[in-house]
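Example (one chain per record):
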Amino acid sequence: MITTVAFHAERSNGGVTGGFDCLAFAPEATTGPHSGQLTVNAMYVVGKITGASVHEDIVTLTGVSDITGLGAGTNVPFTFIAHRGGRELLRF
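Predicted structure:
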């Protein structure tokens, strides 16, 4: 599985606003010649960021999201944690 993540958050009027997107692709097949072709849209998350905190090299974003594919749902709370250098963790 390959995942692409994009987000933007900013302080506004004493709060935090922003958007979050996560797109995950899975292989066409579990084995064989097509198992390395990541073309199946496995999950897409579109979120609204409503909270953010920064501690040293770690940012934590929280909000609600709509999910299609794996874990599908609407208004699903999420927490996204990003570390300087590229390590991320997404929790629903």
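Caption: The mean pLDDT is 91.
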